[in-house]
Write a structure and sequence with these properties.
Elements (H helix, E strand, L loop, with lengths): L5 E5 L2 E5 L16 E2 L6 E8 L2 E7 L11 E4 L5 E3 L11 E4 L4 E4 L2 E4 L4 E3 L9 E6 L7 E6 L4 E5 L5 E5 L23 E9 L2 E8 L13 E5 L6 E4 L2 E6 L15 E6 L4 E7 L2 E7 L19 E2 L6 E5 L2 E5 L12 E5 L4 E7 L2 E6 L24 E2 L1 E4 L11 E12 L8 E2 L5 E7 L6 E8 L6 E9 L4 E6 L7 E6 L3 E11 L23 E8 L7 E7 L5 E5 L5 E3 L5 H8 L8 E2 L4 E5 L2 E5 L18 E5 L2 E6 L2 E6 L10 E5 L6 E5 L2 E5 L1 E2 L8 E3 L6 E5 L12 E11 L8 E2 L6 E7 L5 E8 L7 E8 L5 E4 L8 E6 L3 E9 L1
C-alpha cells in the first residue's frame, strides 16, 4: 500500500513512520548525528517550532562563530542543515509570543521557517541565554553571553545594543558592538538567563583558571536592574535560571517566581526568588561527574515542560519531577525519577516523545587524561546526537540515590540553622553527623512537613565529644524538607544526608545483551574501536578473535560493518586505540587501582575474571560521555568523574556485567562494545559483518543500567599482615544495595577492629563501629539497607594477619 503508515519494529524501539522508517537503536537515530570541526560538539538547544524540531550545536570556545550548524528536523526525521548557520557556542532559546518567532542561538525563525541571523560582529560572544525585556517586551529581547555580556536586541530590525560588555578579547577592528564596560562579576562560564520581578537574573558556573579542586569558591548567581553591571546574589556555581513561563518567559512577570539550580561542594542548590526575596534549598547529588570549579563538566542542566503534570529537571545525573507551581509556601513535589549517564544539553517534548540533545563525544577530551587510559587517542572528530524516549522510559533508567551535606567541616554558631535539605522522595534515608568540639553536641532536626514553610521539631541527636553518629530515618518520619540546628556552638561540624531507593534490578542482563561473551567463552569476536575524523562519519574496528582472523572494518551510519580495503588501516587503529597493560591490580583481596591521587580498592566479580581473556587485554577506561569516563574493572562498569571532579574518590557503579568486554567507544551518540560470542546472531543490538568474522554490540550508554545490578565481593584485606593503628586502603561502598562484612584474624587473643567510613568521598573518615573479634571466630555484620557511604576502611589495635571481606548482593 503506497504511503501507508505502519508500525515498524526497529532496533530497540518502535516508531510510527512511513514505509522507509529510519533506523534507530535504543531511541538513537545514527543518521541524525551532528559533527563539527571543533574540540567538542555539544547540543545547545532543542526546540519544536513551526512543525519542525530545531537543534543547534556548539564548539567549546567560539565567540566569533564556528563550524557548528543550525539543524531543522522534519517529522519524518530528515535532517536539514540550514545554510544560514554561523556556529559559535550557543545554548540559548526563547519563543517570543508577540512577534511569533523562535530565538535560538543567533537565529530568529518565524512561523514560515524563515531564518534571520544576528552576525557575531554585531553580537559577539558565546550566547547562553535569552530573556524577555523588562520595559519593552513586545519588541525587544535580552541576550547574555558566557563571559557576562548582556545585549538588547530589537526582534524586528535585529538592531543590537550592548548593555554589559562581553569579557572576551576580540581582534582589533573585528567588532564595534561594545558601548559599555566589561563586567566585574566573579566567575565565568555563563549558563542561564531569565527575567521577572523587575530584574534580569543570570548564572555562571565556573572560575577562570580554576585548579582541579571543586571545593574552591566558584561561579555566581547575579541580577541586573538597569545598572552598569551585574549585582551578585550568591557566590556559588549556578546553571539553569527559569520560571513557570519556561521557554516563553514569565506570563506574570511582576509576581511569577524565578528558580535557579546550582551546586557547591556540599550539595545541589535550588534558589527561589519570590516577592523580590531570595531563598535557598539543598538537594542530593547522584553523580559527581558534574563537579569541577571551572564549570566545564556541567553542560546546561535544565527545567523544562514535557507535557506532564510536573516539569522535568536534570541536574547532576538525576531526572527530577519539578512542580510547576514551586514556591515558598508550595515547595512539595520535587521527586527523583531515575539516574542517567548521558550528558544532556537540552530537551523538549516533540509529539509523543521526549527528545534529549546530548554532548556525546569530544575530540579534545579537555583535561580528562589519566593513567588508566594509557596513550589512548581522543576520537578523530567531535560528534553528538539526539536521544528519543517515551516519557515513561525516563522512570526506567538508573536507580534513585544521592547524598549531600548542609555543612562540611564548618564552625557553626549556637542556634544557627542550616539550609533546608530535601527529605522526601526516597525510601531509605540516613544522616551522618560529626564534629570536633571537646564537648558533646545536641543537634535538633526540624521538618517542613507539607512544604508550606511551617517547621516543627522532628528529633534531637546527641553526638559525643569530637565524635560522629549515623541516624536512619523511619518511614513514618515524613516531611518535605529537613533542617538542622545545634544547641551550642560547634567546631568543624559536618552533616551529610545519604538517600537511596531499593535497587530492584535483576542480576541477569536484559535480553539485549545476550550476545556478550562470558568469562568462560572460548569463541569470542573482539577488537579495538576508534571513531575516525576527516568528515568520514565512521567507526573503525580492528577485529580480533580466537580463530586467527584479523582485519579492519568500518561501522557507518546505516550500522553496516564492512571490511576496509587499506593495508595500513589496522596499524593506525592499533596505534591510536591500544589497550594499556597493568592498569589494574587484582590480588586475593580485591581489585586495586593505584594512580597519582592514591590507592583504591573495588569489588571482584566472577573468579574466572582473575585470569586474562582469550583475546588478551581488555579496555579499562575510556571517555564515552563528554568529560566523564566509563571504567571497566573485573566484570563491572563504573562512572568515573574527571580528575578535576575528584576522580576515583567519587566513582559509582553502574552495573555488573560479568562479561568479556574487550573495548568500547562512543559513535554517533551510540555506545559500541566488542567482546561478543562468535555464535551471536546478527540483529537486535548485534551488528555482524557479512563475512561473519567481526561483530559489535550497539546501544545507548544508559542501556548499561539493564546489564545487571551492581554486586561483587572482596575487601581491603585477605589474610593480610597488618600493623596496629594503620588503616587499610579505602574499599568502595557507594552504590551497592545489600552489604555484609566478615572480620577475622589469626591472633591468639581477641582483636579490636575499627571500621571507618568516608560518607562522601571527600576524605573525612569517621567511626562507623568497633568490633571485638575473638580468636578463631569470625565476626559477621550486616549493614542496614539504608546505610550508604562512599568508602570503608579498617584498622586493628594490634599487629596480626587479618581479613576484612565484604559481600555486596
Amino acid at each position: 500500500m503506497k504511503n501507508a503508515l505502519l508500525w515498524i519494529p526497529l532496533l530497540g524501539t518502535t516508531a510510527l513512520f512511513g514505509a522507509a522508517a529510519p533506523l534507530s537503536v535504543s531511541g538513537i537515530y545514527p543518521h541524525l548525528a551532528m559533527f563539527n570541526q571543533e574540540g567538542e560538539c555539544g547540543t545547545g538547544a532543542v526546540v519544536p517550532w513551526a512543525d519542525r524540531l530545531w537543534v543547534i550545536t556548539y564548539g567549546p570556545h567560539k565567540p566569533m562563530g564556528s563550524s557548528d550548524k543550525l539543524y531543522e528536523i522534519t517529522p519524518e526525521l530528515s535532517q536539514i542543515i540550514r545554510p544560514e548557520s554561523i556556529g559559535g557556542t550557543p545554548a540559548n532559546r526563547m519563543i517570543h509570543r508577540e512577534s511569533n518567532q523562535l530565538a535560538i542561538g543567533p537565529y530568529l525563525i518565524d512561523a514560515l521557517r524563515n531564518v534571520r541571523v544576528i552576525p557575531w560582529q554585531k553580537m559577539p560572544g558565546r550566547l547562553t541565554g535569552t530573556a524577555r525585556h523588562l520595559s519593552d517586551p513586545a519588541h525587544k529581547l535580552y541576550y547574555a553571553t558566557m563571559e557576562e555580556g548582556l545585549y538588547e536586541v530589537d526582534v524586528h530590525s535585529l538592531a543590537v545594543k550592548s548593555l554589559i560588555q562581553d569579557g572576551n578579547k576580540f581582534p582589533p577592528g573585528k567588532t564595534d558592538a561594545f558601548s559599555s564596560a566589561p563586567s566585574k562579576l566573579p566567575g565565568y562560564h555563563g549558563k542561564g538567563l531569565y527575567s521577572g520581578q523587575g530584574r534580569v537574573v543570570y548564572s555562571n558556573n565556573g572560575e577562570q583558571g580554576a585548579p582541579q579542586d571543586p571545593t574552591i569558591p566558584s561561579g555566581a548567581l547575579a541580577q541586573w536592574q538597569g545598572e552598569a553591571d551585574w549585582t551578585l546574589v550568591r557566590r556559588n556555581q549556578f546553571t539553569e535560571v527559569t520560571g513557570p513561563g519556561g521557554i516563553y518567559g514569565a506570563t506574570h512577570p511582576d509576581t511569577d517566581p524565578i528558580w535557579s539550580v546550582g551546586w557547591d561542594s556540599r550539595s545541589l542548590l535550588l534558589m527561589l526568588l519570590e516577592n523580590e526575596q531570595w531563598h535557598c534549598y539543598r538537594l542530593p547529588k547522584a553523580s559527581h561527574s558534574y563537579d569541577g570549579a571551572h564549570g566545564w563538566n556541567t553542560e546546561w542542566p535544565r527545567i523544562r515542560d514535557i507535557g506532564e503534570k510536573d516539569l522535568l529537571m536534570t541536574m547532576h545525573g538525576t531526572f527530577w519531577k519539578f512542580p510547576k507551581d514551586f514556591g515558598l509556601r508550595n515547595s512539595a513535589g520535587i521527586t527523583p525519577r531515575s539516574t542517567y549517564l548521558k550528558v544532556i544539553g537540552d530537551f523538549a517534548r516533540w509529539n509523543d516523545r521526549v527528545v534529549f540533545g546530548c554532548d556525546d563525544t569530544a575530540k579534545s577530551e579537555f583535561l580528562n587524561k589519566r593513567q588508566a587510559k594509557g596513550a589512548l587517542a581522543g576520537p578523530g572528530q567531535s560528534q553528538s546526537n539526539l536521544w528519543f524516549l517515551n516519557p515513561e522510559q525516563i522512570d526506567q533508567l538508573g536507580p534513585v540515590h544521592g547524598r549531600g551535606s548542609v555543612w562540611w567541616q564548618e564552625d557553626i554558631d549556637s542556634g544557627a540553622v542550616s539550609d533546608p535539605f530535601l527529605f522526601s522522595g526516597y525510601t531509605q534515608r540516613g544522616l551522618f553527623l560529626s564534629h570536633a568540639s571537646p564537648s558533646a553536641v545536641s543537634f535538633s532536626l526540624e521538618i517542613d512537613e507539607t512544604g508550606r514553610n511551617e517547621w516543627r521539631s522532628l528529633r534531637s541527636i546527641q553526638v559525643p565529644p569530637g565524635g560522629s553518629s549515623w541516624t536512619e530515618f523511619a518511614p513514618e518520619e515524613k516531611g518535605v524538607w529537613v533542617r538542622i540546628r545545634p544547641d551550642s556552638a560547634v567546631q568543624k561540624a559536618s552533616a551529610t544526608f545519604a538517600y537511596r531507593n531499593a535497587d530492584n534490578r535483576p542480576l541477569e542482563p536484559a535480553a539485549m545483551f545476550a550476545g556478550l561473551a562470558k568469562p568462560g567463552s572460548t569463541a569470542i569476536d573482539g577488537g579495538l574501536l576508534y571513531a575516525m575524523g576527516n568528515q568520514s562519519g565512521v567507526l573503525r574496528l580492528l577485529a580480533r578473535n580466537n580463530r586467527g582472523e584479523v582485519g579492519c572494518y568500518e561501522l557507518d551510519k546505516e550500522l553496516t560493518l564492512k571490511p576496509v580495503d587499506d593495508p595500513k588501516a589496522g596499524g593506525e587503529i592499533s596505534g591510536k586505540a591500544a589497550i594499556p597493560e597493568g592498569v589494574l591490580g587484582v590480588d586475593a583481596a580485591s581489585v586495586l587501582v593505584v594512580d597519582s591521587k592514591g590507592r583504591w580498592r573495588l569489588p571482584k566479580g566472577e573468579a574466572a575474571l582473575d585470569q586474562p581473556g582469550v583475546l588478551g587485554a581488555e579496555r579499562v577506561c575510556r571517555e564515552v560521555c563528554t568529560e566523564r569516563d566509563l571504567f571497566n574493572a573485573h566484570g563491572s562498569f563504573y562512572e568515573l568523574p574527571a580528575e578535576n571532579a575528584l576522580g576515583f574518590a567519587k566513582i559509582r557503579p553502574i552495573c555488573t556485567h560479568q562479561s568479556r568486554i574487550q573495548d568500547y567507544a562512543s559513535f554517533r551518540g551510540l555506545l559500541v562494545l566488542t567482546g561478543l560470542k562468535s555464535s551471536a546472531p546478527r540483529g537486535g543490538h548485534v551488528v555482524r559483518s557479512d563475512d561473519g568474522k567481526a561483530s559489535v554490540w550497539v546501544g545507548a550508554v544508559d542501556d548499561l543500567w539493564k546489564l545487571g545490578k551492581p554486586r561483587g565481593q572482596g575487601g581491603p584485606w585477605k589474610n593480610t599482615a597488618v600493623r596496629a593503628g594503620t588503616p587499610s586502603d579505602p574499599y568502595l561502598m557507594n552504590g551497592y544495595d545489600h552489604k555484609r562484612m566478615q572480620l577475622s584474624h589469626n591472633a591468639s587473643r581477641p582483636v579490636n577492629f575499627r571500621v571507618e567510613v568516608d560518607p562522601t568521598g571527600d576524605g573525612q573518615w569517621i567511626l562507623y563501629r568497633e568490633f571485638r573479634v575473638e580468636a578463631g571466630i569470625p565476626t559477621e555484620h550486616r549493614f542496614a539497607d539504608a546505610f550508604s557511604a562512599a568508602w570503608v576502611r579498617v584498622q586493628t589495635d594490634q599487629d596480626t594477619t587479618a581479613t576484612a571481606h565484604l559481600l555486596y548482593e
